[in-house]
Amino acid sequence: MSFRTTRSVAYVEDVSPGTGALPPRAWYAASDAKSLSLNGNWRLRVSATVDAEDDSFAAQGYDAGDWAEVTVPGHWVLQGDGAFGSPIYTNHLYPFPVDPPHVPTENPTGDHLRVFDLPDDWPALDDGSAVLRFDGVESCARIWLNGTELGEFKGSRLPHEFAVGRLLKPSGNVLAVRVHQWSAGSYLEDQDQWWLPGIFRDVTLLHRPAGAAGDFFVHASYDHGTGEGTLRVDSDVDGRVSVPALDIDVATGESVTVPVEPWSAEQPRLYDGELVTAGERVPLRIGFRTVVLEDGLIKVNGKAVLFKGVNRHEWHPEKGRALDLETMREDVLLMKRHNLNAVRTSHYPPHPAFLDLCDEYGLWVIDECDLETHGFTEQAWRDNPVDDDRWTPALLDRAARMVERDKNHPSIVFWSLGNEAGTGRGLTAMAEWIHGRDHERLVHYEGDIDCRDTDVYSRMYAFHAEVEKIGQGLDGGTHKRRELPFIQCEYGHAMGNGPGGLADYQRLFEAHDRLQGGFIWEWIDHGITHAELGYAYGGDFGEELHDGNFVCDGLIFPDRRPSPGLVEYKKVIEPVRIEGDGADGTVRVTNKYDFADLSALAFEWAYQLDGETVETGALSVPALAPGESAEVKLPAPPADAAGGAEAQWTVRALLAADTVWAPKDHVVAWGQVPVSARQSPSVTASERPTAGERTITLGPASFDARTGALKAIGGVEVTAPRLDVWRAPTDNDAGAEWQTDTRYGMLWRKYGLHRMRHRLDAVELGDDALTVRTRVAPAAWEVGLATVYRWTSDGTRLRLTVSVTPEGDWKVPLPRLGVRFGLGRADAVTWFGGGPGEAYPDTRLASMVGRWRSTVDELQTPYVRPQENGARADVRWLELGGLRIEGDPEFWFSARRWTSEQLDAARHLTDLTPGDTVWVNLDHGQHGIGSQSCGPGPLPQYFLRAEPAEFSFVFSTAE
Fold first, then answer.
1. Can you tell me the distance from the alpha carbon of 671 to that of 662, in angstroms, rounded to the nearest whole number?
2. DSSP code of 563?
């Protein structure tokens, strides 16, 4: 008999949300009512199909002694070293046939058992009732307690509660949970992430004494005109609400208005309160704030806000979506320390404790429903559940479970209907229900291009030019859309090296009121810890259908180390702008906060000569109000500053005292003001090249007499520098598959830039120079680069001037333009230029000019999929491997223990084996980065076009 007609498993393919669960209600972390966590060790049996085993395991007395043991919360495919199956990653394609609501018979099913006793202090079983709560199970669960079936549910990232008081006994309680990986609900959860079955959030038993609090809704508005807040708590169970700090003590349902400090992401003022009913005392954390759509803008407490946000999937490299509180706190602290002020909970409600942290530390939140049907785009959205009335109850259930659970969080300013689910009647029903239930927040959904159901015009990955048109009101669309504010709910795709172009977006956001910011995609790389590969991504578990490393597109690495992209974003969105003109000795300081003045910040200056700080001091800056600017006078430069060195001021804005999210002296913003320019290196061509039998000597250098290739400088042996245009393409170079005409990483391979050939045309010894003429070109094409190397020396230093002339019709920009050479022994690196981290033409705002030190290994950026990385920008000079190298003009450099070709061939970091040679690139130019892995490529001003170029480097032995 087919399992689809088997009554006991028909619920798996039922489009309804489930049966037996209690109505959704507000979530709170604790009260004075007893609770018992059922997290911990559970017994597990995994079957290959949905109906492989009967229900006998749910009966009391069942012997599961030979079952495996797993940890709950957790995913069974991330435990047991692969014994229970493997993760699957797809971006939008369903990993099963699209035949809604049906799913395959091959449906991994995990039977879970937990035997527990009630603690000694648990109330008498006839004293009230009890509720069993599941905070997250993927994707469908059926529940029994002590042999009695409670029900089943779908909605993986949503809470479900069951009344169980009549079933409990003092000891030997048997909780049985059958979890199916695939169900009808899977069609609503196609959310660009790993498919990971299991009980991955908390399981809790809650005592509900007589008169316990039920559902309640905290309404706490703020009138920015009067400075007063109005509080009303609506409760299913009558009680009283107290807020001692405000002298409030009122009955539920009654309103009270008092002077308050408002809540905002910048100043997250929370008031401790308490809801008291006859049977329970529930702590409240109340934030007064008002969210409105007014004058075509999103306003909070009377002010338009600018979102500097990020999309956040829940992720841990070993535990998947089973996050503990400290991991969630680490995320929030990293966000705050990098100047983020907003989070979109892509693409489902997060663990509720995360929202508590957003309330506490201060982050605007778009809370997104557990809904995405992206895979239906493959059939032009035919049979899309959101436009099929049969699925509407499930959609409304998901909306209600999100809103009811999270409605008391002041951090939430938007409810989002979901993500990439097309359009349809079901979404309209969700929007209408949410608008009717909560008048105090706005509704978001990116897929509603005409804004029929939404309060904001939201887009993904709109190019800069279109964003500017939208800001100018020239984008057209429906009348309603034209009157709404605009956000980019996803932009700046942070996959691998990048994203580029963030500063250009931010300039647009700040130039046009209608543009109210955006949310970078995304927060973290979803790499899975792997013994052989370091971090695994799609395809590494043998999936027949997968989307590779597209799951690794975050601002932090899987171990939560910030990537260069996050460091860049911090600088781009810093809330204080510091700029100036060293000639007049002033800096202009601008407060870019929406609500806070600058009283929480202290400012300091540093005066630097050739990148070394020679004097520091405090800078007095007024406590500017939001939007205000002031010209601030810098002190007189140090008296001994003369001598031809390059001079500059660096001004930093620091926390003046410890905060809950960062310590005193944490750097919030910085700016640099040049005073005097550097002097270009000069080498008098006083030495004559001398030819021997096999060697040409010129000053401190020796060359191969036949090829003119450099062999050594002083006692430092080198592998000859020669022109290099190739870089291991970044994920953003490779581009998205739908952008065929501008995927330069692909086109570079097409035109052979990864296999350039070098033809020697002439080696010429002149009176004061050694000149080597070459042509560098790819096989199979007529284009080439006529390249001339001219070497001169003053006896101790050696100057190389490279002249490049393109030949033929170059149809693509160059990846890079410079020279590459090898050093046999090199480790410590010192340079004067941009740092401390990597930078490229459109990712260089965070590159601070100074004197920096590193090692070759520390220069590498460990992107999960290896690619071009580690370049330092604006370098004046570099010391490495016994050589000192000065640039004319400034240059980029990178150094690594493998070639670009080896880097290009690697698929994981463990594929890279350090060699005996350190390969050094000295680049006159680099092509921009962009975010074309799922967005625009580099803007035209960041293209490295094939044009005539000349640049020089001066080599000497380091002291």
1. 20
2. P
The CA–CA distances, whole Å, from 908 to 296, 903, 912, 915 equal 48, 10, 8, 17
Whether pTM > 0.90 for this model: the answer is yes
Residue among 62, 57, 30, 27 nearest 45 (CA): 57
Pairing of β 457-460 and β 486-491: parallel
* Distance in angstroms (rounded) separating the CA atoms of residues 388 and 342: 33
Q: Does the structure show a pLDDT above 90 at 741? A: no
- Please state which of the ranges 125-129, 505-509, 653-657 shows the lowest mean pLDDT: 125-129
Cis peptide before 347 (omega within 30 of 0): yes
Residue-level pLDDT at 1: 29
Half-sphere exposure of 238 (CA within 13 A, CB side): 2
Token reading at 791 = 């070497």
Give the model's confidence band at 244: pLDDT under 50 very low, under 70 low, under 90 confident, else very high: very high
**Cα–Cα distance between 9 and 50 in angstroms, integer?**
7
Tens of pLDDT along 758-804?
Answer: 999 999 999 999 999 999 999 999 999 999 999 999 999 999 999 99
What 3 state SS string does 635-694 have?
A: CCCCCCCCCCCCEEEEEEEEECCCCCCCCCCCEEEEEEEEEECCCCCCCCCCCCCEECCC
What CA–CA distance (Å, rounded) separates 684 from 954? 11
User: 3-state DSSP: the chain helix, strand, coil percent, rounded to 5?
Assistant: 15, 40, 45
CA dihedral for 204, 208, 212, 215, sign (positive or negative): positive
Cβ neighbourhood burial of 543 (10 Å; 0-12, 13-18, 19+) = middle
Structural domains in the chain, sorted by start: 3-208 (2.60.120.260), 216-290 (2.60.40.10), 293-571 (3.20.20.80), 574-676 (2.60.40.10), 723-788+798-957 (2.70.98.10)
- Give per-residue pLDDT as tens, 409-443: 999 999 999 999 999 999 999 999 999 999 999 99
Residues 206/234, Cβ–Cβ less than 8 Å:
no
DSSP string over 231-274: EEEEESS-EEEEEGGGTEEEETT-EEEEE-PPB-SSSB--EEEE
Which of 464, 449, 355 has its CA nearest to residue 403?
355
Please give, one letter per residue, the 3-state secondary structure of 926-942: ECCCCCCCCCCCCCHHH
Say if CB 554 and CB 100 are below 8 A apart: no
431: DSSP letter: H
Burial of 56 (0-12, 13-18, 19+ CB in 10 A): exposed
Q: Average pLDDT of 557-586?
A: 95
What pLDDT, in 10s, does the model give residues 626-669?
999 999 999 998 876 557 899 999 999 999 999 999 999 999 99
pLDDT tens digit string along 14-70?
A: 999 999 999 999 999 899 999 999 999 999 999 999 988 898 999 999 999 999 999
Radius of gyration of the chain (CA): 31
Neighbouring residues of 652: CB distance < 8 A, sequence distance ≥ 6: 603, 604, 605, 606, 667, 669, 670
Q: Cα dist. 275→228, 230, 537 in Å? A: 21, 16, 47
Q: Which residue has the tokens 């005392």?
A: 281
Report the distance separating Cα 197 and Cα 185, nearest Å: 13
Q: Give the residue numbers marked as catalytic.
A: 420, 490
Q: CA-CA distance, 937 to 905, in Å (whole number)?
A: 23
Give the separation between CA 618 and CA 19, rounded to whole angstroms.
65
| DSSP reduced 3-state for 11 | helix
3-state secondary structure at position 469: helix
Residue 328 is given by DSSP the state H
* Token pair for 877: 């000079």
User: Residue 644: what pLDDT?
Assistant: 83
CB atoms within 10 A of CB 206: 17
